[in-house]
Design brief:
There is one protein chain. This protein is α/β, with parallel strands linked by helices. The protein folds into two domains: 131 residues, Thiamin pyrophosphokinase, catalytic domain (Rossmann fold), CATH 3.40.50.10240; 70 residues, Thiamin pyrophosphokinase, thiamin-binding domain (Jelly Rolls). Helix content is 22%, strand content 36%. The chain is built from five helices and 13 strands. Strands 1, 2, 3, 4, 5, 6, 7, 8, 9, 10, 11, 12 and 13 form a 13-stranded mixed beta sheet that branches. Strand 2, helix 2 and strand 3 form a beta-alpha-beta unit. The protein is elongated and about 55 Å long. It starts with a strand and ends with a strand.
């Protein structure tokens, strides 16, 4: 499996769990996400973007990293450019670090929906800030290695059919969940969390305990 980590411009905390997840991966940075390379102690193999949110000292610090520079007026975000490049380079699994928070809620929502689109296409993708993780949920059966006691929510992007949740404080059995329902918000992991879905698209977001 070829794992790529893409450094994005949102919030990130370096934890032992995150370090274990990214061990042995290849790194790409999207614009200002390069700042996370400092705290992770890595040097990405490629830096992409329009560099409109990158501080001058960061440009100097990583001046030897190869860059792909794009105009500010373009038809996709720096993060999507980096994700597409990861897949072009042969990624079979991608971790988006710094995918949440920051000053752009629209970017956070894009990362969640973009990841779900790629999951629909059969790709493995994880979003992380170190203290939160998100995994797209498309039809199938899943087991998650989330720490016991973690609070998680399943947010739907469509009506969900046949949603089952096991090993949680509030299990569910083959329910239909309307779009926009809060029923699956703020559940708690109790053991090895198992989720299955027959139809629909959603995302599972967990606050790690």
């Amino acid at each position: 499996m070829s794992t790529f980590v893409i450094l994005l411009g949102g919030d990130m905390a370096v934890t032992d769990r995150l370090r274990a997840q990214i061990k042995g991966a290849r790194f790409l940075a999207a614009d200002g996400g390069m700042r996370h390379a400092l705290s992770l102690g890595v040097v990405p193999e490629l830096w992409l973007g329009d560099f409109d949110s990158t501080a001058a000292d960061l440009l100097e610090k990583f001046k030897d990293v190869p860059r792909q520079t794009f105009p500010v007026a373009k038809d996709m975000t720096d993060g999507e450019l980096a994700l597409n490049e990861a897949y072009r380079l042969g990624a079979t699994r991608v971790i988006l670090c710094g995918a949440f928070g920051g000053e752009r809620t629209d970017h956070t929502l894009l990362h969640l929906t973009m990841a779900t689109r790629h999951a629909i296409e059969g790709r493995q993708i994880l979003l992380s800030s170190g203290f939160e993780e998100a995994m797209p949920l498309v039809p199938g059966n899943y087991q998650y290695d989330l720490p016991d006691g973690s609070v998680f929510s399943i947010l739907s992007f469509s009506e969900l059919e046949g949603l089952t949740i096991e090993q949680a404080e509030w299990p569910l059995d083959k329910i239909t969940l309307p779009l926009g329902s809060s029923l699956t918000v703020s559940n708690v992991v109790r053991g090895t969390l198992c989720v299955s879905l027959r139809l629909g698209h959603a995302i599972l977001i967990a606050k790690l305990s």
